[in-house]
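Problem 3 from the worked examples.
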Amino acid sequence: MSPTVLRKNGFRFYFYSNEHIPIHIHVEKWDRYMKYDLENNHIIENNFKKIEENEVLSIMFKNKEKLIISWKNYFNKKYNYEK
């Protein structure tokens, strides 16, 4: 299972139900993909073209708090995040 957190401009932002820390997000559109570390602010994997990468990062930064809160709410029992 992979809960979708956000859909924007055709990009799907999601995580897997068996994720590990650090807090990170997966992004896909067609056959392109990015994995981004939200805690340490860096790209882990990426095969988007530069223009797409910039669009993904812009969307991500505008929604970073929502993405992190979604992760923490989903994984609260597993990692004991404070509410």
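Problem 4, a separate protein:
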Amino acid sequence: MGHRIEDRLFSAPVLRGAALLVVTGYEAYLVLLFVLNDWLGSATKGAALTDFLVFWSAGSLALQGHAAAAYDPATMSAAELRLAASHYQTLPWVYPPTFLLVVTPFALLPYAVGYVTWISAGLLAYAGTLFAVIPRRLAPLVALASPSVLWNLFEGQNGLFTTALLGGSLAFLEARPVLAGIFLGLLTYKPQVGVLFPIVLLITGRWRVIASAAATAACFAAASYLTFGTETWTGFLRSLTGTANTEFTAQIFPFVALQSTYGLLRSVGASDAIAWALQVIASISAGAAVCWIWTRPLPFDLKAAAISAGALVITPYLLPHDLAALAVPMAFLIRHGLSSGFLAGERTLFVLIALTQITPFIYGERLPLGPILVALLFLPIVVRVRRVQLAEGWT
């Protein structure tokens, strides 16, 4: 009975209609904010404080021949305030020079045009990757209805690109390992998300992926070095300690903005030592579970879901825009469900996980639900792995 109800609720016409309604609502919301000068900004108020303002300002410094200055907080603050209203709290540039190489071309455009071009590219990358995982026209439309997509559009963040690279590496891992490695090499712009992949690739002997990823990462780094010089890398390395001190002591973002085990525990009053200890335990446990899954004769979809979910557990530094990457394990679980049948309540769980991602808009980042959502996503993975294990009789 429950399966029949879910089949009706999640039929293609219902999903298509609901997704179109939500996506249209996102568009209307952003247009309204633009009209009210609360998104992108205005000629009188200056640019709105978003993360793209940081990207555009760093790119602008690079175009002026001062790329290394992006790692100087005072210089970055002045660059942002030249464009934004002076009462805004400025934000630092915390990315490696490889990402500076990515954002600089967008600074060639006027700010608003660059912003729209940036988020449009992110949407295309995100939707295209999820279509590669589930090659049905409905898949990218449903994925675009995720509240995390709206959050990335609103902030001009890079979560859609991260999702595309994470999902693309797994979508092509078996059929096109060199392409998968290229995606992983590019993901080094946000290394904390991909830290689990080298371990899994090594223990499973996927040497072509490893070689491709290493070569891509090396070329990516070399290109940024040749373009911006030694100073950007020395500036980045010097900034790491300061970045860690501010990010993990709530000097820039409150603890509740960290969508990790560490952030959740600190936000409820745990000490730094306890939060770090439990973060390490969660990371090691997730990493061990993922490695175990990848060394067992399991369907690739379950392996891909496990490593993409595990990647979000491993890192202590995960922000709301990064939760867009939850679409990757969900997509692989859905692909597995389409071929082997869905678990009772599984599709409802996916919808609840997606809807919960709207909390940053409603509660202003006062609920660090990231680790809880990832834990819930592991439930169907564990159940499906256990079913295969019992059916085939291995340990």
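Solution to problem 4. Residues 2-392 form one domain. The chain has a mean pLDDT of 89.
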